[in-house]
């Protein structure tokens, strides 16, 4: 099934491992590191082999295998200054940031990086972080209402003078940000619930989805695009999370997946499952993130196995292009051994994706002619 708009060339992003524990909650070896020197080299490698975006995670306290965390906005700026073309997306929580303060940071980051700073607005699922910091914890849809105001305020401050905003969560009175960004930072927002999809359609540039199969992607895309049309014919791009296991043989890739799950840190995964399942089901329609995730899904804590980017370079490239055909604009990849696997992906998978995209465009032109 195809959706209305299909990108010419799908883009690639990677999860920045600025949080300890890697991208799977498992005792399997993960040749990765959360320190800056490792991440600096990784960003330079990713940029060189064809990745266009990187997403800095955000956690403020130890939880479920992530004992140490670097703060996302400062870490993103450091990576921007170490690269030349890579766009770095910093994840932030409304409720822990005041939007005017973030807008000021974003404008500075834009000028220092030549327009490569972006923001991922995370409405929040981890109640313990908010309560430990003495901040109020809102119910599910209220968190998304706050995020909607946060997104609106950011965009206004970056594009308008004498901004006035009177919301339920934020008040801005005759505020002019100077200097403004040279390039307005792209605004990303994730979540699976109806409130998240509606927010994305109305206010975001990009919608990030947890791992999904083809049917799941199509359902979300149609919802987000319907919301965007109702909000004045906006265009929202779609990013899909996927844990990528590319190996020379399918057998080797599948054995790697089996080992990851077999060596899962069960107490950590179960603790995470208890927290996020409650959060997902707290959405009024029960469609929140992780509401139907299995134990295996949660070993990669954003359902990355569900996207099934697991196999040979040829198999993965074909599946990526099939997602593109359904309307996906970007693949957000996680890896077991980041440095070497991003190198492998750039050398073995990405060129195949470009070849398949070119062949499909040629075929479309021939049909149209």
Automatic annotation (TrEMBL):
Keywords: Flavoprotein, FMN, Monooxygenase, Oxidoreductase. The keyword Flavoprotein applies. One of its GO terms (biological process) is alkanesulfonate catabolic process. The keyword Flavoprotein applies. Residues 11-329 form the Luciferase-like domain. CDD domains: Alkanesulfonate_monoxygenase. InterPro entries: DMSO2_SphG (IPR024014), Luciferase-like_dom (IPR011251), Luciferase-like_sf (IPR036661), SsuD_RutA_monooxygenase (IPR050172). GO terms for molecular function: alkanesulfonate monooxygenase activity. NCBIfam families: LLM_DMSO2_sfnG (TIGR04021). This is Dimethyl sulfone monooxygenase SfnG. It comes from Kribbella sandramycini.
């Amino acid at each position: 099934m195809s959706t209305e708009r299909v990108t010419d060339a799908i883009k690639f992003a990677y999860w920045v491992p600025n949080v300890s524990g890697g991208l799977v909650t498992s005792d399997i070896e993960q040749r990765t590191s959360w320190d800056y020197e490792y991440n600096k080299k990784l960003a330079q490698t990713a940029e060189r082999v064809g990745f266009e975006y990187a997403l800095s995670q955000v956690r403020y306290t130890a939880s479920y295998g992530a004992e140490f965390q670097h703060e996302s906005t400062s870490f993103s700026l450091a990576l921007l200054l170490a690269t030349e073309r890579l766009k770095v997306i910093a994840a932030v929580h409304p409720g822990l940031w005041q939007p005017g303060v973030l807008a000021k940071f974003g404008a500075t980051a834009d000028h220092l990086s030549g327009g490569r700073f972006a923001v991922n607005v995370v409405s929040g699922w981890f109640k313990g972080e908010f309560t430990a910091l003495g901040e109020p914890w809102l119910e599910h849809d209220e968190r998304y209402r706050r995020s909607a105001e946060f997104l609106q305020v950011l965009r206004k401050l970056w594009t308008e003078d004498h901004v006035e905003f009177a919301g339920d969560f934020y008040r801005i009175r005759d505020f002019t940000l100077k200097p403004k960004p040279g390039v307005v930072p792209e605004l990303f927002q994730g979540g699976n619930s109806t409130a998240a999809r509606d927010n994305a359609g109305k206010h975001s540039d990009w919608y990030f989805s947890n791992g999904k199969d083809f049917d799941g992607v199509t359902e979300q895309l149609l919802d987000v695009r319907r919301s965007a049309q109702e909000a004045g014919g906006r265009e929202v791009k779609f990013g899909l999370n996927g844990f990528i296991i590319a190996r020379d043989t399918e057998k080797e890739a599948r054995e790697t997946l089996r080992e990851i799950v077999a060596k899962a840190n069960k107490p950590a995964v179960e603790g995470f499952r208890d927290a996020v399942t409650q959060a997902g089901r707290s959405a009024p329609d029960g469609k929140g993130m992780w509401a139907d995730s299995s134990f295996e899904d949660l070993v990669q804590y954003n359902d990355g196995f569900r996207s099934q980017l697991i196999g040979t370079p040829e198999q993965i490239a074909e599946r990526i292009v099939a997602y593109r055909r359904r309307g996906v604009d970007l693949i957000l990849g996680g890896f077991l051994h980041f440095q070497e696997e991003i190198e492998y992906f750039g050398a073995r998978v990405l060129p195949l994706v470009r070849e398949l995209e070119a062949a499909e465009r040629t075929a479309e032109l021939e049909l149209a002619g």
